[in-house]
């Protein structure tokens, strides 16, 4: 089947036309681009070296302050020192002495083009250094304007080797074709691509692969479903896949022996099918749903199908009213009456994003909780609705008892963005009245409510009074109230924390 190229909806002409239809002039292009790349920077990993770092050498010998003690160190240690310097400083070490002169060419360098005043200097460094490079960050150039240099950079990195590569195109066009040479970087372990159109993977040679790739980030990248399947099949040791604000819809069919973390951030997701992923530990969704509004009378648009994922421990944020859950050939319809069967017993940490002011959406919470019987930590993110549609009463929650995870397993509840709505309070009371092993309930207020002139600290005191009056299933449960450090609706997700396995519960720190 012939590959259908994605439409160029993000050319400069298309952007100006779209802005004009919204009553905005061309003068808004630059602010928009700045905003877009500001968001993209939050997705990219930080370079391992900084041009702002302060390096000081001090000799404590009062009689001979000029003594060179560093040069007496073994070459291996000196190369390690050089490799931790910005590339300009690393090259300058060659003038220190004859001992230092060859070191920078054999030390694995970190080349960050943001640290260089001129783009051509980066090309000269790539040509002069024998490799390998521990890290190369190329994020400051419009690749469409420099096709010759683009080809040269990739050829040099393929020949000399690079472990971490961050490769971002500057507009315009936003969907400039990514050279297929990217697949020749056999040594790369960490790869982040931004603002590209993915190459035609069906035309690549049979042996094309990323044999050592552990972490892949795709931001503003136009791809087809077959491209995702190609990447997963040709990256045998891939552990982390992050898709960030993709250009187009996402349909993922995941078969991977080593994948541990999947992140979908601000994407239009149709389907995520976890077919056979024995090492998968976390699926993290943030504003990842289709374009349809969050309205209770709409068809649910995003389907998540669970196959073989025995180690899946963390799942969030699911959105009642948007996500359909499926196991095997059984679709778990999310009804307003709780009744679906158990589907993923391995999940210990669950995040739900809920519009408590939309009655039919809030009613789905028990259905979702019944799908995951062994949850130990529950994160609830309360969302403000533009179109409130009824509120749940305490009576509804009183009738929703008998949920296994609530009664027997949930030990901690974290309620993010609490605003004092009666439906939010009713849910918190329901948890306290039924959670027999609950040790801690943490409520994070929306920014400004605790310190507003009208409510002051009384909002926190009132909540504590309301919750303390509940007959708790576990009298030893500890109640903690905090205020949010970010405004409601503010950018808050931290992609790097979410994929960091040192954080046992990334939902604490990502939001």
From TrEMBL:
Species assigned in the record: Urochloa decumbens
InterPro entries: F-box-like_dom_sf, F-box_AtFBL13-like, F-box_dom, F-box_dom-containing, FBD, LRR_FXL15/At3g58940/PEG3-like
UniProt protein name: F-box domain-containing protein
Residue ranges of every copy of the F-box domain listed in the record: 67-120
Domain of life from the UniProt record: Eukaryota
Transmembrane segments: none
SUPFAM superfamilies for the chain: F-box domain, RNI-like
């Amino acid at each position: 089947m012939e590959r259908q190229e994605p439409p160029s909806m993000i050319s400069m002409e298309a952007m100006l036309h779209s802005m004009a239809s919204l009553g905005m002039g061309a003068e808004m292009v630059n602010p928009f681009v700045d905003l877009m790349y500001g968001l993209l920077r939050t997705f990219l990993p930080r370079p391992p070296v900084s041009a702002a770092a302060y390096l000081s050498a001090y000799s404590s010998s009062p009689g001979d302050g000029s003594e060179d003690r560093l040069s007496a160190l073994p070459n291996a240690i000196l190369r390690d020192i050089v490799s931790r310097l910005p590339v300009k400083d690393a090259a300058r070490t060659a003038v220190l002495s004859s001992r230092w002169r060859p070191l920078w060419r054999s030390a694995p360098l970190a080349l960050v083009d943001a640290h260089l005043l001129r783009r051509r200097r980066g090309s000269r460094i790539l040509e002069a250094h024998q490799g390998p490079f521990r890290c190369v960050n190329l994020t400051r150039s419009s690749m469409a304007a420099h096709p010759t240099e683009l080809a040269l950079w990739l050829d040099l990195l393929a020949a000399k080797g690079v472990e971490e590569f961050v490769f971002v195109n500057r507009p315009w066009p936003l969907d400039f074709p990514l050279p297929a040479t990217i697949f020749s970087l056999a040594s790369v372990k960490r790869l982040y691509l931004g603002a590209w159109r993915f190459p035609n993977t069906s035309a690549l040679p049979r042996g094309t692969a990323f044999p050592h790739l552990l972490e892949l980030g795709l931001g503003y990248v136009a791809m087809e479903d077959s491209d995702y399947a190609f990447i997963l099949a040709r990256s045998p040791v891939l552990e982390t896949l992050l898709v960030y604000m993709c250009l187009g819809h996402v349909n993922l069919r995941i078969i991977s022996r080593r994948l541990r973390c999947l992140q979908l951030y601000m994407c239009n997701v149709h389907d995520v099918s976890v077919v056979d992923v024995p090492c998968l530990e976390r699926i993290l969704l943030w504003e990842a749903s289709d374009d349809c509004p969050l309205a209770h009378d709409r068809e649910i648009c995003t389907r998540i199908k669970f196959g073989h994922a025995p180690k899946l421990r963390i799942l969030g944020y699911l959105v009642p009213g948007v996500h359909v859950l499926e196991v095997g050939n059984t679709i778990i319809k999310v009804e307003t009456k709780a009744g679906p069967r158990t589907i993923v017993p391995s999940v210990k940490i669950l995040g739900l994003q809920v519009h408590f002011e939309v009655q039919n959406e809030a009613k789905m919470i028990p259905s979702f909780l019944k799908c995951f019987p062994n949850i130990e930590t529950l994160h609830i993110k309360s969302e403000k609705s533009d179109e409130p549609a009824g509120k749940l009463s305490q009576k509804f929650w009183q009738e929703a008892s008998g949920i296994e995870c609530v009664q027997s397993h949930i030990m901690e509840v974290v309620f993010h963005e609490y605003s004092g709505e009666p439906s939010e309070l009713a849910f918190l009371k329901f948890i306290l009245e039924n959670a027999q092993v609950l040790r801690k309930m943490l409520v994070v207020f929306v920014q400004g409510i605790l310190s507003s002139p009208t409510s002051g600290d009384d909002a926190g005191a009132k909540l504590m009074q309301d919750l303390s009056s509940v007959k708790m299933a576990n009298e030893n449960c500890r109640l903690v109230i905090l205020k949010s450090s970010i405004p409601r609706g503010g950018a808050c997700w931290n992609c790097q924390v979410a994929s960091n396995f040192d954080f046992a519960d990334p939902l604490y720190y990502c939001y």
